[in-house]
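## tool: complex_structure
## caller: assistant
## args:
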Amino acid sequence: MDKHPLELTVNGSRFTVEVEHRKTLADTLREDCGLTGTHVGCEHGVCGACTVLVGGEPVRACLMFAHQAAGRPVRTVESLAAGERLHVLQQAFTDHHALQCGYCTPGFLMLIVGAFERDPDIADGELIEVLSSNLCRCTGYQNIIRAVRSVQDQLRGRA
Amino acid sequence: MSTTMRDRLVGRSVTRIEDRALLTGKGRYLDDIRIDGCLSAHFLRSPHAHASFTRVDAGAARAMPGVVAIFTMADLRPHLTTDVLAVGLPSTAINLEVDRPILARDEVAYVGEAVAMIVAETRAQAEDAGDAIDVDYTLLAAVSDCRDALKPEAPPVHRRLPHNCLARFAFRYGDVGSAFAAAAHVVSGAYHVHRGGSHSMEGRGVLAAPDPMARTLRVWSSTQTAPALKRNLCVLLGKEEDAIVVETPDIGGGFGPKLVTYPEEIATALGAILLGRPVKWVEDRREHFVSTTQERDQHWDVAMALDGDGRILGIRGDLLHDHGAYTARGLNVPYGSGVTLPLPYNVPAYSLNIAVALTNKVPVTPVRGAGQPQGAFVMERLMDKAARALAMEPQAIRELNLVRASQMPCRKPIRLRGGTEVILDSGDYVACMRSALERAGHAGFAALKRAARRQGRRIGIGLANYVEGTGRGPYETVSVRISRTGRVVVSTAAVAMGQGTATMIAQIVGDQLGGRMDNIVVRTGDTGSGLGFGGFNSRQTVVAGASAHKAAVEVRRKLLQVASHLLEVAEGDLDVVGDRVEIAGAPRSGLSFADIANASAGLPGFLLPGVDTPGLASTQQVNINDMAFANGTGVAEVEVDEETGRVRVVRFTLAHDCGRIVNPATVDGQILGGIAHGLGNTLFEEMLFDDAAQPLSTTLADYLLVTASEIPAIDILHRESPSPLNALGVKGIGESGVFPVMPAVAAAIDDALSDLGVHVERMPISPQALRARIIAARSSGNA
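## result:
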């Protein structure tokens, strides 16, 4: 299979890569952009571990071909912290023990950031439904929900 | 004097040291490890549950783009000391040798069994090549249902074997015959308990890289048992211990199946040696469904004899356990089921016959709970039946029979699989149950139920007790040392898979060595000492905790000895604070850890400072053979939709006792995760196979893991009955949350449908199945 050139804008930086048309955005971010924070859990769009923001929307990077992301800004978990300072949501996650093995965590962080940016007024019930998009086998979700609720105001304000 | 109660780390919900890296996308999971020139492996897997073959035709595949090599068993065998992974825990009960071959030789025994390994520049190219390989399979009869496996006409799961009965063994004590003869009441039930897979969000993976400069093979694997992997690699590849280095990366969940050493790990390592290049294999989700071990079906036929007051006289029955096609661990899952059943109660006589059957399905090894939740489920179902037979309240008949606090330590007439006696070390089961019932509002529920019924709603409440063996021995290795820069460096063979092992160990060590978490570094999955086991069976807080504590105490002793000599102050007048040893009452006096570590290293020609041996280090393997038994009670509230059979768990209360708690937040985290897993096993998770043993559940759209929407309101109560078996008094907690969910929810469903006389006998229970039960109950006139 032939590789084709592609320019991706990820976390504000430009990446010039060459990938087959069939290579997913998730694999390209991990292998060609060196951003391994986005994880692959199922490759069939159910678990959400690969969730990133493309043009502001949370998407399953495992179901998107890298070439489909051309010309659209991509944001991954690596964009959240500012140097040593954690994003308010990341801080809330550690304060509330909302991560254990950490494999699903980047996907949840981007899902939540994207959901609040898209709709700052998102209601609690809808928030739970959004959270049910992603799977976690470790935490049982309660602490993730608590972490999000604890910084809800900041997440709404930041949008 | 060691740190004051107020300053102690153990007992506090200290923030985890693991978190920052994981939150910022800087975790280092297996597939994040990049090595130049690394090749990708892909395994060609059998599409048939049982077939023979003579030829693997890879000619066309070898010529495809990016393909570097294709290996079959014939290619690997000359470089292996043996062709199978013989890892079964020893048992005289096992009749048949069914060890897993590294690659299939001439027969495949389950869908997903690996037949060839393709190594290419990229995974995609390797998979493309796999499609071009032709295997001349001849289909053989397959056994799908373990109940069929033991019938006389059943085809053999392996064609060379005479039958499919891997093992028969029994638990027997007391006089069961007399118990039943004298019984005022006998209740019985037939139960089918099915559990599923692990489905850690990260699948398996292994990376092997020859290091020509060091003349070693470096191996990373997403494994729970790095020491076992190293041992198996050395044995199978015929290498000395110092020729192979095994390390664990961050692990994205384990839950049991990653405790197994797999043929893929051996094959990938051998591929790297033969090709002289790094080779990486990463499992995808479909492979996790068809080739990672799981738990599956158990069929129980049991009866309980009781006297007129409701006291248990005896329990007897049969258990049939589905083992899968090969032995990847041993008999520990059904053994654990049999041991667990009578634990919480005084059971004077017990007779359980266990048959372990082979099937043409992926092998069965522990999944969170390791067979124990099934034993607890069956016991609690029998107690609920007994309650109804005697017209007693479910909690009253339980309270009558629970092992009392005054009986502790309570010797049970059964043995663990290694021969150790079962002795319940501590716990107040009655008080624990009462606290759960009170918190759950159990006493007032009947009124709520009546009120709901008047509104046409069906709600129910159910309770379940459990006792679980934790802290599987015999030991875990922990090394503690103070480095020349004054850092406390801990290495352990204990493995971290999300449960906060590093933080737990740092807290225990920190209480002896200054109390500053930021001065402690913990490396897990360290196989350097050559001794150790890793993470499984809720063991690490007990065995690694005990070794960490002893090692830290040793290092502290030496630290003070050297400091006392250097400062010319009595040891009793010294405090260990932060990264210094200070003279009591004079803060910032004394010496830093770094000063003391450097002094303790010695100088040529000079005496060591007040000690006979240099350095501030200690390696410990505290030997603990008895298991520490944790206990708990779960109370579930459900709402059942009579029209659809849908069950919603509205609220779950769990009172538990895991001995002394090291970190309350992470203990709660383990319980919450366990409850979610238990909920999955109760209502959602089922590995479906057809009659030809073809797996039908092969995606996460078929096999349902609970999401945030399914989680009920959860209340957790803690009790701490310290274990006398270790200096810290701790017990394990990793699997506990799973135990009470199936039985408590089953009981709650029964309660919601009590007028229909429904008794849930199968796990998981689907809406369709429950609806069918409701319809049947109505038509048989129970309404």
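## assistant note: Chain A touches chain B through 55 residues (CB under 8 Å). The two ends of chain A are 42 Å apart (CA to CA). Handing back to user.
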